[in-house]
Amino acid sequence: MNVQSFRFEIDADGVALLTWDMAGRSMNVITLEVMRELEEVIDKVSADPAIKGCVVTSGKDSFSGGADLAMLEGFSRQFANLAKAEGEEKAMQTFFDGSRKLSQLYRKLETSGKPWAAAISGVCLGGAFELALACHYRVVAEGEKTRVGLPEIKIGLFPGAGGSQRISRLMPTGDALQMMFKGEQLRGDVALKMGLVNEVAPAADIVAKAKAWILAGGSPVAPWDRKDFRLPSGKVFSPAGMMIWPAANAIYRRETMDNYPAAKAILHAVYEGLQLPMDLALQVESRWFAHILRSKEAAAMIRSLFVSLGELNKGARRPKAEPVAKVKKLGIIGAGFMGASIGYVSAMAGIDVVLIDRDQAAADKGRDVSRNLITQQINRGRASTADRDALLARIEASDDYSKLGGVDLVIEAVFEDRDIKAATIKKAEAAMGKDIIFASNTSTLPITSLAENFTRHEDFIGIHFFSPVERMMLVEVIVGQKTGSKALAHALDFVRQIRKTPIVVNDTRGFYANRCVLNYIREGHIMLDEGVPPAMIETTARMAGMPVGPLSLNDEVAIDLAWKIVQATKKDLGPQAVDPREERILDELYNKQQRFGRKNGKGFYDYPEKGPKKLWPGLAALQPVKLDPDLIDVEELKQRFLVTQSVEAARTVEEGVITDPREADVGSILGFGFAPFTGGTLSYIDGMGAKTFVALCDRLAARYGDRFAPPKLLREMAAKGESFYTRFAPEKAA
Questions:
Q1: pLDDT digits 0-9 by tens, 575-587
Q2: Architecture of domain 514-595+621-727
Q3: Every domain of the chain and the residues it spans
Q4: Which are the catalytic amino acids?
Q5: Residue 76 Cα distances to 124, 127, 346, angstroms
């Protein structure tokens, strides 16, 4: 056999061990070459009478993260080229045949006549878990690091190598659908209870356990290939089955708003597949998989949430000439919730933290934020008391600025007031090392002006975290006019060290994410003033693909903060820079009604001590007019929500704030939840086409105002037939 990605050996008992260990990679991935080699091994095992069975395991810390998505993207490119050369029918057949090769390979393993067992430690996801499901026995390592699952839905796909058919035959249909809809990653003990694996053992024993099963006479026949097999939830067309499918369809529509074709394909594949023998069921799954693989949603999500996200996490925008920096000790000034939370995620990453505030009591209170956050993890079974002790030991609370003398990086997170920040910066510089980078966690104040309070302008940078820090994965790294490459490299290295995703943003008021998301919130305020029913505003925003409505989001970020931003904008840029309708709504809520949002239990919503939040009935009194909901164009409302954010993103590109479309797209999804199925703000425009988008902007601007007017850049792109990913190719921007 000619295998390079695996090691193959046969022990004295006649059990083969196939160890997946790809050279030059930290993680095994499924490629065309891996598929070819695996087929060779399957043929060898099935043909050699001396081999009793085979155990497949990994030579790395993790089993595998699944298929190489570049391979799947290659199928799409191959289709486009073949369609031009030989016609769409020929191209589609070739595309279908290529997209189902992995499914056919796993079925060949499953029906090879020899027992196969998977010994899994670390992550085993997507196509790799589908390999394990095709094996006749699965042993997983105990512990938190082991995770199995089918997360394809998160990048616009669904399990297409037999996963949808096998798990819906291993576990109740409703549970299988939920697992695939959510893309859940399960611990070994949970997977065992759900019937997805057969055994949990210490990591050192998993191969021995798998071999023991084979030697004990493990069956080479999958449950669904036996004549006595019965579906866990009964036949589809049965009283029990009909209890599942109407509810499943309703849940699908509620959770996806029909925006995710892959989720609908899961319903189709499972519903149709469960009525067929396995080989036909796999063919049905393959047809749906090929259909989804060619969808614009999958293409956009794969590019943004896998390819671009991976490139940014690996340092695509990092200055290559600068040496890699590692923060061993971090200084944080400001122990309020933001500063304390930055301290928490840093300490969780193994960094020692000095948390400084105006007095010891305030600093101690900030340290307690970490205590509370880790205690929540303990209560959920995700951490131990030993983890809490180790975490708190890494955080030193103090009111003494001299503690900054031994740190590798300083981040200020004090109150968003220019004078307070100026005093803090000067005091910190006097205490910290002379070659240490200083970062400001400002969300609105330009970095260039803040840097005037620091003598080494080139070593001053912005690192903007989003709240809640422990859950939000995006960090904006803001480059001032005089920020140097060393500061940028150090900031990006730190963000990577705490396992978050950075985007690089040039200095401007509101940076990138806040500019876009504030447009979204403003549009909700304006719709309220126009007379759109509040519930319709919120629901339509979710229908457009946003995670929460603009009124709910405003409550989360605080109404008083929104009011202050409007007033600061008015002061700095003049009254024409704010919309009087938005100002009136905020003035009524904040100043007259003292409704500050979730933090004081009343905002656009009421937050009772018990029960869910509800829209405040008093909102009706704030509307000068009330529109008939039956006469409102829902599609236009959805467009307004997405266009107002995307056109602002285009403006940031025109202004040079964003220079790489990957960062605009990834930042919009991770930072403020912009409709993930579109691929992000700029992919939304590219997917529609610049010419069509400009026409839509002009139509909305004519009806609703200049806030929808497309910038000159977009008109140029429309005239030339350009897209953001052609005009601003990431290779040129990086």
A1: 999 999 999 999 9
A2: Orthogonal Bundle (1.10)
A3: 6-294, 329-509, 514-595+621-727
A4: 130, 152
A5: 25, 18, 41
